[in-house]
Amino acid sequence: MSVGSGKVQVLVTVEDQFSGRLAEVADSLRAEGLAVENLLEALGTISGFIEQDRVKGLSRVKGVAHVEQSRQFQLEPPDSEIQ
Amino acid sequence: MGTFPTSPSTVSPNLEQTETTGRFLVLLDETGSKEGLNILQKSAGLRIASTADSATGVLDIEHISPTDAVLFDKLGIALVTVAPDQYQSLAATAASEKTPILSIEPERVVYAIQEGAVRRAAVQPAPAAASAPATITTEYLQGYRDAVDRLVDSLVTSGRMPAPITEEEFEAEAQAQVTWGLHRTRVPRSRFSGRGIRVAVLDTGLDLRHPDFAGRSIVSQSFVTGQAVQDGHGHGTHVIGTACGPLQPSLLPRYGVAYNCDIFAGKVLSNQGSGSDGGILAGINWAITNKCSVISMSLGARVFPGQAFSPIFENAARRALNLGTLIIAAAGNDSDRRIGSFWPVSHPANCPSILAVGAVDIRLQMAYFSNRGLDPNGGQVDIAGPGVNVHSSWPMPTSYRSISGTSMATPHVAGIAALIAESNTNARGLNLWTRLQQLARRLPLSSADVGAGLVLAP
Fold first, then answer.
1. Fold of B169-450
2. In chain B, which residue's Cα lies nearest the Cα of A44?
3. How big, in percent rounded to 5, are the helix, strand and coil portions of chain B?
């Protein structure tokens, strides 16, 4: 994932009644500064990148149920006995 | 198991302490209800009243003559009143090998078990003795259900159902042809292979040039920017090997469960082993869209005690279940039980709608690294799988490697989930989850560590 300086990856889940209107919610999120990456239709979820200090603003967008910052995962190195 | 009685008709040893009604319950096998009734009629001279003859499924037991039997046709159970000599005759029939009468045992007096019974008792004393209810109610049938549970327990120990694997059997089969993990989970005995079932494994990809996957149906997709599906780490090839590896690998032992399933290899972790929630969700979305019945995720991020699960992943998993896709994820390896260090189930396995898998070793003891269900709200371990010294495929030219982790336990469960899904078209989503737990072998370990127990193949 290419992340711009100061930007964080966020995940936004829409309320159930907005499931079929992901593109519409995405437009509203763009207006709040989100660089939309993916519309995950089956999950009712949108991923994207945004400046850290603007994350909170996304929760106020109509149709948004949850906003989370993306966590990072790291496997053990290939030669580790426990993975 | 040698200390248990071998005859299925043996009356439970603590009968003297149990209040009985003088009637007997006869358990008929699934196919032989009709034949069983004939035997009851001929050998014991009983007249049969069946709930199948009643539009409501309810019979008035008090109006049934003492010489009659009542058949609960949906349960395959007859309730009979017999004289001692008739009982001996029926018991002998039940003990013989080829008979639809699986068992006969005394009907017990069953009392209602009430929550807060002590508190209520102060207000309304419990009845001193329960007489047989006048009609067959739900509660009455629940009592019979409990009796059936006891019958099944007795059958399991009587040898009419598959017995637990003995150490000798274990050694024989394990040394021969299959990994200990497949053997312990009874995969080689299953007649299912995952045929027609799509299994998504979201990991570091797959070594597409590994000879053990030649000729397999493989759909792959990378969600890692700038990296192909080709596995540059090894972890992905190992876990796909366990869930989906072949019946006959180029070198024994066999290590793969669902050898005929359709493989969906989603690369959500880089060749350096790193990834993010965004990539994993994209992989889940892809797997659901492709109608995969099972998603295996041998990945996790550490969670601190009391930390809430992710609503985003819970929402995703709930939608997946509703669409017939079960997500199975590793409980995590953060613990070190050797020094008394226990960590809760990792993200995202700590979501209530994701099946969390702990790891056990060849002796079915807890793996020291396996996380524990410490967070009550969704953070339970749901089931356990083989996760110590697990032999599976590794990118060429290494070919094979043995490693440990809840990452290795997870694809055992995912592969077996595919076998169950093949065995029953209704076993999807939450039904598949339930079936996995029903089939699991109970272990003498804490459910906080192993959930329902060791995953077993259908």
1. Rossmann fold (3.40.50)
2. B316
3. 35, 20, 45
